[in-house]
């Protein structure tokens, strides 16, 4: 029964890929593709033969893709197709996701500015909140986050969250049940970065931590993968004592490499009452 369900899912995904590509093809005019208009066309957009020729693909292969057949598309072929179809960033990412392939043009993380609206939002949040980029380096944060994260956001130290957790003595003192949290963070990072493990920035972070942190190297080699689902976060703050929060993480609209994390609550108490 499970195998049947998975097969149906694959078929539906191939059909969605074919429908998506066909819809993009039909939006293109010959002029947009640098082709002469020619005689009046019976169907909108470019013909399958024209797209296949522009991409350097066989007409049969391209037709099968649009028909949702079980054919394999290489990342380079998909990249040419995305270029010819003039796909935007979100559309290109959707194409590669449907094809279950990794985009060869996204190895290097782009420098993404935190939108002004997000910066303004941070200032209105009364509890700790911060924005991480693809490598989990903090790009923006508010005053409560500065106060909470001793040794990370309160000075000129390394802004990368993983380096803070594994290389800073302050983190081991601040984070309750440090080992369990650190193990989960590595599993979350592996899941979040799965589509970008060829990114030189991520590779440098991973290599550096494997070299300088036996704990990170051990957790990384376990290959655990979990989603960044939030939940309870507890801290032993040097000034404020025991603090308990609920973590919530949001995607930043139009900036898929940025994540906004908010720690809601901040109830103080004693460790025994946890």
Automatic annotation (TrEMBL):
InterPro entries: Cro/C1-type_HTH, Lambda_DNA-bd_dom_sf, MLTR_LBD. GO terms for molecular function: DNA binding. Signal peptide: none annotated. It comes from the Bacteria. SMART domains: HTH_XRE. Residues 20-92 form the HTH cro/C1-type domain. Pfam families: HTH_31, MLTR_LBD. This is Helix-turn-helix domain-containing protein. It comes from Vineibacter terrae.
